[in-house]
Amino acid sequence: MSAVQNSYSQSGEDLIICRELGERAGGTFLDIGAFHPFQFSNTRRLYELGYKGVFVEPSPSLREAFEKEYGADKEVVLLPVCVGTENGTQVFWDSGGDAISTLVKGETQKWVDAYGSKFTPLQVEVVSVAELLRRCPYKTFDFINIDTEGNVWDIVSQFDFPSLACKVVCLEWNGKEEKNFLQHLTKQGYSEVHRNAENMIFRAS
Fold first, then answer.
1. What is the pLDDT of residues 47-82, one digit of tens each?
2. Spatial separation of the C-alpha atoms in residues 158 and 128, rounded to whole Å
3. Nearest to 125, CA basis, from 47, 58, 205, 43
4. What value does the mean pLDDT take over residues 23-35?
5. Could you tell me the residue ranges of all domains in the chain?
6. How far is CA 160 from CA 39, 164, 188, 202, in A?
7. Average pLDDT, the chain
8. Rounded to an integer, what distance in angstroms lies between the CA atom of residue 69 and that of residue 20?
9. What values do phi and psi take at 191, rounded to 5?
10. Which residue of 29, 68, 82, 190 has the lowest C-beta tally within 10 Å?
11. Tens digit of pLDDT for each residue in 174-198?
C-alpha cells in the first residue's frame, strides 16, 4: 500500500479521484494497465465504495491475484489483453509481477540498466480502444485509468471520453506527451485538477 494514509495509489491519487467524484457510493470504472488489485491501485478505493468495473491486465503472473480477489464478483471483469492502436498480436515484455511490463521494447532498457530487471517476451492479444469497449459489459464509466508503460498517448488519443459519460480521467504521463494530453483532454471538455511526476488527473468541466 502507498505511504499516503488510507490510499492504495502510488502517491495518493485515489484520494483525489474520489474527491473529484464526490466520494459517492457506486459507479463504474475502467482500469487499463491495472497491475494489481491493491498495489499502486487507483481503483481499489472505488471498489470499496461500491463501484463495479473492468480491469485490463495482460500479465499472466498477475492474473491469479485478480482472480483470487475478484473472481467471485460478477460485477467485476478482467480482460487479459493489451490495448494498442489496432487489433492483432504483439510481443509483450512481461516483468514477472513488477509494475513495469510493457508493449514498448524501448521502455525495458532503463529498468535493465538501473535495476537489472528481467523481462520475458510473450505473444499477447492486442486490441484497439474501439474493440476494448465492444468487449466491456459496461458502456459508460465514471472513472477511467490508463497506465501502460510507454504507449499511454496511443491509447488516450483513441478515446472520446464524453461519449462514455466519463467524469474523471487519470493517466500516467511520466513527463512525456504533456502537450498532447492537455490538448486532447481540454478539447473534450476536461480540466486538469492534479499532477505529480507520474500521473495527471482530469475532471469533466
1. 999 999 999 999 988 888 999 999 999 999 999 999
2. 8
3. 58
4. 90
5. 13-85+127-204
6. 28, 7, 7, 14
7. 92
8. 26
9. -120, 140
10. 68
11. 788 999 999 999 999 999 999 999 9
- Looking at domain 13-85+127-204, which CATH architecture does it have? 3-Layer(aba) Sandwich (3.40)
What would the 3-class secondary structure string for the chain be? CCCCCCCCCCCCHHHHHHHHHCCCCCEEEEEECCCCCCCCCCCHHHHHCCEEEEEECCCHHHHHHHHHHHCCCCCEEEECCEECCCCEEEEEEECCCCCCCECCHHHHHHHHHHHCCCCEEEEEEEECHHHHHHHCCCCCCCEEEECCCCCHHHHHCCCCHHHHCCCEEEEECCCCCHHHHHHHHHHCCEEEEEECCCEEEEEEC
Which amino acid type is present at position 179?
K
Full-model pTM: 0.92
C-alpha cell at position 29: 470504472
Q: Nine-digit cell at 132?
A: 476494448
| Cα–Cα distance, 135 to 7 (Å, whole number) | 30
Q: How many beta carbons lie within 10 A of that of residue 3, not counting itself?
A: 8
